[in-house]
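Need residues for this backbone.
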């Protein structure tokens, strides 16, 4: 029999149907040397790619540094110029950008701390300095800001030699040191030394409006109103939008019954970033001019604002009122116009803010009487009469102190009187003034400790 033939399929090989080891038509077999050269070429390509990736990463890192560091340099630079020019609004705006780009930047935090200290917000100042300290523990600028805060609060015993040394060195912060130092000296009733620092500051920085402004504040405190008026105007001539100087000048003009001129000054102050304090003062000028309806409308707008916003506005013009002025003024207007229910609400708000507000308390008595609440009205009137009778002693005590500056007993009596019936701040001022002449006076120390507890 014939053996049948079995057909088998050819199995394709990786070389496309050709047997392994046989070259593809038109090609040749890879030799060991060629294989080694190919491997070396692949290695070089991989190294080149790796270098390019490293280079790209480096370029990206530099770009990130430029993206943050470049703009941060400029925002901090513009902020620093605004701080020097006393333009707090612009400074805060630039520093807002700086904080967004680099929240813990030391220079940014130091400028924010300085702005906070200038406005009297020492809690915020401390927060900013602690952030700066966490980044740069040994930065001497942080210690300086804490020292200036102490000087500003009249804590001069330990740091006064340092302040004087800094001033002799005449560095870039000399004007800032003078500002804090003068504040502390005035608070300690060391007026003669304050005048000497002001003279040096004014001579060294003739274009700086602040020494004129600080001198005016001192003169106003000493009741030398015409001299204070002139000093404020000098400061304003150097910086026309110096709102703190404008605001204080308006107060002097109102005290001198120059209501229209004061009104014009306060109208300029309404251009402040936060003009609530200026609006209250504007309303007071309108009341003095007999335009009570216009004043009432302005005050109604102010009392609807957040208390912190009102406080911030006053702080921006170097004022920290002890009274709720807007509520007190509006309550008086409402009581005088027969709107007794509204008046009572507003006046009680003012008295709750500060029970020493005798003007608000008297208006409250009138409003309560208008509502037929005679017993309550009588109690308020008795409190007013007691306060007024006690405060009659103030001028006598001031005259005694003028004749006898070292009379500690008179200073203590005046301090206690004012603290109880008129002003906590003024009362503490007169109690502390004792230490200028009698540093170890135990009675004054005990009174201050009792008040502060």
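Answer:
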């Amino acid at each position: 029999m014939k053996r049948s033939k079995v057909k088998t399929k050819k199995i394709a090989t990786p070389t496309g149907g050709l047997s392994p080891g046989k070259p593809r038509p038109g090609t040749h077999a890879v030799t060991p040397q060629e294989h080694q050269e190919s491997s070396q070429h692949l290695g070089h390509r991989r190294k080149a790619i790796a270098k390019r990736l490293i280079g790209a990463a480096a370029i990206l890192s530099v770009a990130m540094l430029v993206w943050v560091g470049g703009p941060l340099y400029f925002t901090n630079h513009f902020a620093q110029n605004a701080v020097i020019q006393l333009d707090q609004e612009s400074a805060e705006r630039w520093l807002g950008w700086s904080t967004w780009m680099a929240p813990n930047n030391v220079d940014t935090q130091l400028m924010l701390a300085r702005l906070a200290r200038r406005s009297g917000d020492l809690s915020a100042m401390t927060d900013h300095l602690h952030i700066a300290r966490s980044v740069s523990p040994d930065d001497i600028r942080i210690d300086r800001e804490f020292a200036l805060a102490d000087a500003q609060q009249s804590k001069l015993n330990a740091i006064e030699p340092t302040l004087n040394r800094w001033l002799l060195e005449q560095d870039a912060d000399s004007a800032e040191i003078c500002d804090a130092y003068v504040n502390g000296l005035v608070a300690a009733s060391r007026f003669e030394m304050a005048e000497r620092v002001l003279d040096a500051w004014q001579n060294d920085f003739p274009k700086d409006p602040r020494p004129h402004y600080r001198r005016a504040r001192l003169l106003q405190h000493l009741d030398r109103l015409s001299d204070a008026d002139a000093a404020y105007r000098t400061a304003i001539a150097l910086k026309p939008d110096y709102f703190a100087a404008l605001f204080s000048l308006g107060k002097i003009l109102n005290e001198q019954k120059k209501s229209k001129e004061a009104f014009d000054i306060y109208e300029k102050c309404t251009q402040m970033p936060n003009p609530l304090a200026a609006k209250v003062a504007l309303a007071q000028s309108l009341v003095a001019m007999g335009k009570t309806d216009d004043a009432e409308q302005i005050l109604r707008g102010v009392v609807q604002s957040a208390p912190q916003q009102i406080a911030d506005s006053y702080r921006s013009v170097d004022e920290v009122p002890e009274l709720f002025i807007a509520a007190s003024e509006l309550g008086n207007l409402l009581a005088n116009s027969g709107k007794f229910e509204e008046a009572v609400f507003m006046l009680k708000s003012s008295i709750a803010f500060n029970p020493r507000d005798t003007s608000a308390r008297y208006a409250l008595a009138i409003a309560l009487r208008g509502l037929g609440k005679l017993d309550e009205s009588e109690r308020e009137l008795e409190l007013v009469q007691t306060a007024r009778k006690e405060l009659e002693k103030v001028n006598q005590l001031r005259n005694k102190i003028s004749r006898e500056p070292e009379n500690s007993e008179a200073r203590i009596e005046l301090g206690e009187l004012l603290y109880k019936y008129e002003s906590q701040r003024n009362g503490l001022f007169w109690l502390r003034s004792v230490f200028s002449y009698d540093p170890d006076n135990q009675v004054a120390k005990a009174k201050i400790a009792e008040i502060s507890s």
